Amino acid sequence: MKTRQYQILKTVLVVLPFYLFTSLPLTAQTFTQRLQKHSGSQGTVVIHQSDSIDQLVNTTVLGNVNRPQTPPSSPASGNSSTPAAKPVTPTTADKTPAGQDEQAEEIAKPRTIKAIGYRVQAFAGGNSRADRQRAEAIRNSIKSHFPNVPVYVHFYSPRWICRVGNYRTYEEAHQMLSSLKSLGFDQCTIVKGKISVASY
Questions:
Q1: Contact predicate 184/145, CB 8 Å
Q2: Which helix (H) or strand (E) holds 54?
Q3: What is the DSSP string of 141-193?
Q4: Is 136 within 8 Å of 122 (Cβ atoms)?
Q5: Which of 40, 100, 183, 196 has fewest C-beta within 10 Å?
Q6: Are 85 and 46 within 8 A, CB to CB?
Q7: pLDDT tens-digit profile, the chain (200 residues)
Q8: First-to-last CA distance in the chain?
Q9: Closest listed residue to residue 47, CA positions, set 24, 30, 64
Q10: DSSP track, 117-150
């Protein structure tokens, strides 16, 4: 009798781990499924994304996580594991005029890196609101004369600073300095520091 019980116990111990490990990937949840899981009195997370984003988020370094491929459920399907998503109505911030996407691509900034170079300092004031407004007014004035040249307004404690351009050489900065002085910005000086340079 003991040998029969021993055989049954041995069979169960061999079959049980095999059964558990083969059915485990079928019930495993992906990252996004865990986020969307409704639990008790906590809030509900609803994620709207394309299939390519879902694959990107829910894959591992070694490959795809084994998960059942189920189509996204509609609110009428009655899927009880995840709450039904309410349709999203666009707000005024979401509504964009036709053609604005093309404009956004044209305006997209190129990638930049930081390097040591020169800028022309057009204004250095105090730390008051009036000094900030004056720095911004100088920026706007310079931008109206040189629309393609970057102009920066920063607060470097304890003062507001307005600096112009990203120049790798002192000579380039000196050309801008001469142009600004001819426009009446007599306080201008050349300063050395970090500049933004387009990466190629």
A1: no
A2: helix 51-57
A3: HHHHH-TTS-EEEEEETTEEEEEEEEESSHHHHHHHHHHHHHTT-TT-EEEEE
A4: no
A5: 40
A6: yes
A7: 677 777 888 888 777 776 666 655 555 567 677 777 777 777 777 777 777 777 777 765 444 444 444 554 444 444 444 444 444 444 444 444 444 444 445 555 668 889 899 999 999 999 999 999 999 999 999 999 999 999 999 998 899 999 999 999 999 999 999 999 999 988 899 999 999 888 76
A8: 80
A9: 30
A10: EEEEEEEE--SSHHHHHHHHHHHHHHHHH-TTS-
Token pair recorded at residue 8:
């049954």
Contact partners, residue 172, CB within 8 Å, separation at least 6 = 118, 165
Length of the chain, in residues: 200
Please report which helix (H) or strand (E) contains residue 112, including its range: strand 112-124
The token pair that represents 143 in the structure block: 């931008």
